[in-house]
Design a protein that fits this description.
alpha+beta; elongated; 5 helices
Length: about 300
């Protein structure tokens, strides 16, 4: 959007607002050094209220409330195009898509993801395996629960308390392996630093069954890494055509030669280098020009040469 004002920090300056799938970017038309970037993960609220703009006066503006490192920040954006709701509708729609798909991307502890001992599936999510009798080794005694293996994530919940659960998206998995623990061989899942750097251990008996589960999870993780599912459906509007569709190939001109002046053709030939000519022809005096010129070839007259011009 080419005409958006940062009313909070740069009131009176026209700028450009870029809306991506991860953040908002604004910079001033006067100087690109005056800019800001707001990640959707830091946003805690979006609403529309009145604001005082130096370029539009009292008008409706978009308020974006954020929280970062324990501090709260407020951003106010004013669309300088009159009667255009595009600023409000676009940002709210994109942020809603981001906010409602966090379970595809973020590790979740103790969430409302289990109902009646069954997993609440996300859009485009499919359950590939449900494993009973899985021990979570996070405590000294261990907790007995159930494992759900889907095409998007791994989910474990305790059998005695559904709200004691963990959802681990493949996007946040750093490594999967089997290693020894004080409970014996365990399936160990390490998450990325962005998700907290957790090391989660699970035990399944017998060991052959745990190895099969390890192979299944590892295979689904590899498939997800190639074709990730983010849970966002979208349609392209005014999609630009591919370069192959707009490329125009060179075509010969459709020209029909109606008449050809043989004398004129001979005149053009006179300007080419003479392949059998080893020396200049004898100079002769031309009364029409009042100059000495090289004698002309046979069949060529001075009038033919002037007709070329």
């Amino acid at each position: 959007m080419d005409s958006v004002e940062d009313t909070k920090g740069n009131n009176g300056e026209r700028g450009e607002l870029i809306i991506t799938n991860l953040r908002l970017l604004w910079w001033s038309h006067k100087s690109r050094r005056t800019n800001l970037s707001v990640g959707y993960n830091a946003i805690i609220g979006i609403n529309i209220r009145s604001a005082s703009s130096r370029l539009r006066g009292a008008t409706q503006a978009l308020y974006v409330l954020t929280k970062f490192n324990g501090s709260r920040f407020e951003f106010i954006f004013t669309n300088l195009v009159k009667n255009s709701p595009r600023l409000f509708t676009t940002i709210q729609a994109v942020y809603r898509a981001y906010d409602t798909t966090k379970l595809y991307r973020d590790l979740k502890l103790r969430g409302a993801i289990i109902q009646d001992k069954d997993l609440k599936l996300l859009p485009h999510e499919q359950t590939y395996n449900k494993v009973n009798g899985v021990w979570n080794l996070s405590s000294d005694q261990g907790n007995l629960g159930t494992f759900f293996i889907t095409n998007v994530r791994l989910v474990w919940h305790a059998n005695l308390a559904e709200n004691f659960n963990v959802s681990i998206p493949y996007l946040q998995i750093k490594s999967i392996r089997i290693r020894d623990s004080k409970f014996g061989p365990a399936l160990v899942i390490e998450t990325t630093q962005r998700s907290g750097g957790y090391i989660l251990g699970f035990r399944v008996d017998p060991q052959e069954k745990m190895r099969d589960i390890f192979k299944e999870i590892n295979s689904l993780w590899q498939v997800f890494s190639v074709n990730p599912i983010f849970g966002v459906d979208f349609t392209m509007e005014d999609k630009p055509q591919a370069i192959q569709q707009v490329t125009v190939h060179n075509q010969p001109d459709n020209v029909e030669i109606i008449d050809q002046d043989e004398e004129s053709t001979d005149v053009f030939v006179a300007y080419y280098a003479d392949g059998v000519k080893n020396q200049d022809r004898e100079p002769v005096y031309c009364a029409d020009l009042g100059l000495a010129i090289e004698s002309l070839r046979d069949g060529i007259t001075l009038e033919n040469l002037w007709n070329v011009l």
